[in-house]
Amino acid sequence: MAETTAIRTVDGAAARVRAPAATITDAASWTCPAPLRDHRTVVMGHGGGGQLSAELVRHLFAPAYGNDVLAQLGDSATVTLGGTRLAFSTDSYVVRPLFFPGGSIGDLAVNGTVNDLAMAGATAAFLSCAFILEEGVELATVGRVAASLGAAARAAGVVVATGDTKVVDTGHGDGVFINTAGIGLVRDGVDIRPERAAPGDVVIVSGPLGEHGVAVLSVREGLEFGGEVRSDTAPLGSLVQAMLDVCPDVHALRDPTRGGLATSLNEIASAAGVGISLQERSLPVPDAVAGACAFLGLDPLYVANEGKLVAFVPPARADAVLAAMRAHPLGAGAVAIGTCVAEHPGTVVARTGLGGTRVVDVPVGEQLPRIC
Hints:
The chain is of the alpha+beta class. It has two domains: 77-186, CATH 3.30.1330.10; 194-359, Phosphoribosyl-aminoimidazole Synthetase, Chain A, domain 2. It contains nine helices and 16 strands. Helix 3 (105-118) runs parallel beside helix 4 and helix 6 runs antiparallel to helix 9 (318-326). It is globular, with a radius of gyration of 21 Å. Belongs to the HypE family.
């Protein structure tokens, strides 16, 4: 027997769903949506970019590797080699499905690493690329992925200089996994770090939020939300350079991928010891994304993006940076969404449309696994 229950979505709208009676009335059938944090094994949330990911890095990996470069804990590490400042980053891509509206795992493998370098003010120069293939995957599929990766690299102006291929047994992979690492030259005079965010800084996002996560989910689950939502995957290096042309003193940049904008803002607030105050009505969430999130009970602030950035800019240069961003194809939808404040250090709050405020915290795990 099934019975109907009401749920409340993130935008306050009510929806009704049908579920087996046992899942509503039998407490023994309930499950916790997030894993407990005092566990002994790896859980999916450890890869989601939220609190579990941060704990894994800080309490397991960082002590094991322990060095000053790793301690930066940014999207990429900035190092000096032979008197030249370089940014260096690596990332792995396990998205499912491999192809989705607006992109593929091949696009992500290039753009994700290029963007991590760009968040340090670097222009990407070279990438490495390693494929881990599952036995039985069709070579035509691998070829499509490789072709999309090559096209994305050419579009981003970066050279895939070296690579590797491994094959794992059937059932021990998911078709294709990719790892890319990248190096790039950091622009002279630039010092972009999360610690540099300061009270008074204007917080700017480069365009609509949540498109990538919803695009991947729509294909994975076979859902339609009143119109196709396409991934925003794109290389942001040229946009960052346009911003630096008018404001070499951009304080902090981050591309809000896993964990979405909320996680990126919390990481910067914590690193700089500042508070962040957002205007919720200013957040650029497309109607299709908002509708999908309302239907699924998700908050768009936690949904992944793959072609957007958030910038912390001195107030005197905010208008110039906004103008430069809006003149660039990848920043046409740029908008100021809030400011850095001295109050509530380490905490992000949003002023709602009704005049109240809510705390925008870091998720424990992840809302949407395997989206990048």
